[in-house]
Amino acid sequence: MQHLIDTNDFTEEQIKTIMEDAKTFKKKMPKKLLADKLLITLFFESSTRTRSSFEVAAKRLGASVIHLDPSKSSTNKGESLEDTFENLAAMEPDGVIIRHEFNNTPKKLANKELTPIINAGAGNYAHPTQALLDYFTMLEHFKTDTLKNRTIAIVGDIVSSRVASSGIRLFTRMGMNVVLVAPKPFMPDNDLPKYESLDDVIDSVDIVMSLRAQLERHKAPIFEDYDEYAKEYCITKERMRNRDILLLHPGPVMRNIDISDEMLKDRRCQVLAQVRNGVFVRMAILKELLLDS
Ligand code: ASP
To answer: What is the C-alpha separation between 97 and 261, in angstroms, rounded?
Structure first.
């Protein structure tokens, strides 16, 4: 039984297969490879893209999807998350796709070895399918099969972002240079090159990944005024000038704080390409987890 807690659950060979399958699926929709499979989604935090993307991906491959809304489930009546999960697993689904505020929830459930667990976002620790779809979007943009020595600047609330955590692990593993750009309270403690201002490094980056301030994860407000924050960290045309840089963002975008309206319309901004690619990459991931193992 294979789980996906973070991208290091996949070998490099598997990641290669996922990238190739996603590319093939994008060219031509495959047959209903997962026609006899049933997945349950269990989202304890809000989601627009990830939940619907998983559902579209599963259905494109012919699988059935059942959503359990935790706010209407028995976790609301005092049942523990683990008991809820064991009850769902007793119905013998082919996998459970889970999002939860705690970093270790997917791993804890996976350790029960009852059904494959697919992490759709855990605390600030991991969001593996986002990292893989970002990686795919970059490969596609640069029309290459390796991103070795390309440089990505991750900009914004890095310390609270599971997208950044998973991205940093995957991109460095794939030989990319990762630089971090954030004000001190948003900067994690690690060995990567760090900048307080994007202007200091923008001339040496190929990709900028902008991140939303994860307000829901801040115990107390970190900045009073996000307009002030935006003056330094919003990705604007003035900041990008005519540099040939790919601009990514996992969504949801806080307009004119993360990225300006004008840059969102710019051809360098590939936020919707990320969403489109997310379906093909998740199809490839589901195939890898549910069919190939
Ligand atoms: N959608 C991403 C996540 O679930 C990014 C975000 O919410 O800012 O982590």
So the answer is: 33
Tokens describing residue 232:
């330094």
**Ligand 1 pocket member 250 (CB < 6 A):** yes
Q: 0.90 exceeded by the pTM?
A: yes
The 10s digit of each residue's pLDDT in 13-71 is 999 999 999 999 999 999 999 999 999 999 999 898 999 999 999 999 999 999 998 87
In a domain, 201, yes or no: yes
Atom of ligand 1 nearest to the CA of 212: 8
- CATH for 159: 3.40.50.1370
Alpha carbon of 36 to ligand 1 centroid (Å): 31
Distance 209 CA to ligand 1 centre (A): 13
Q: Got the DSSP string for 90-114?
A: TT--SEEEEEESSTTHHHHHHTT-S
What distance in angstroms lies between residue 250's CA and the mean position of ligand 1's atoms?
6
| Bridge-based pairing state of the strands 38-43 and 207-210 | unpaired
Q: Which residue range(s) make up the domain with 176? A: 129-271
Q: Which atom of ligand 1 is nearest to the CA of 214?
A: 8
Is residue 34 one of the residues assigned to a domain?
A: yes
pLDDT digits (tens, 9 = 90+) for 20-29: 999 999 999 9
